[in-house]
Each structure stands twice: as C-alpha cells, then as structure tokens.
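Class prep. Protein, please:
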Amino acid sequence: MSAAALAFLLSGVLLNAAAQLFLKAGTNATGVVTLTADNWLATLARLATVPPIVAGIACYAVSVVVWILGLSRVPVSVAYPMLSFGYVVNAIAAQLLFGEAVTLQRWIGIGFIVVGVWLVARSA
C-alpha cells in the first residue's frame, strides 16, 4: 500500500471518528432526540443549528471524499477493515472528552480488532 493511499484511508478514519465525537457532543447538548410524525421536521431543523452536530456532518462529508480517494488506490477488502481503527480513537476520546468508562473487556475486544486489521492490511 502506498503512503498516499494509507494517508487517505487514515484521514478518512480520523474524520469519521471526529464526526462521531462531534455528533455525541451535540446530543450531549441537546439531550435525548425523539422523532415523531408530528415533530420530525422541527427536530431535524433544530439539530441543524447545533454547532457540534453541524461540525460532525461536515466531517462526514469530507471523510466521504477522502475515503473515495483512498478506495481508488486500495482494494475495498483492505480499506474497509481499517475503519475499525476508529474504535480505538473513539474509545480513547470518549474516555478523555466525555468521561465514558472503557472497561478492560472493551480494550481487549478493541485489541482483537486492531490485530485483525493489521493482519488484513499486511495481506495486501
């Protein structure tokens, strides 16, 4: 895998992870989001004005473009598993930013995922 391809894929993973963190920060600010037949449009309009949610959506949009650039260079069977690195990034960030508990069992599971991704990446 070329350095450019790896850079695109890792950038896509990091942008995707950032999007999740921004969206969580937004929902922390808004509280539980409930959509009903009567309120869905007003609720979505309200969410569209919450800065962290807007930032999360923007990160997703950029991540799609970066991901496409990476996919044009690497087989999807190699690229897609790399999204799993987002688990590591989000677990660390959720613990630091939101005070979420990340248990030993969760870290062990994430470790298995990382080893699997490493094996897939080496097969390319």
User: Anything to note?
Assistant: The radius of gyration is 17 Å. The first helix runs from residue 3 to 30.
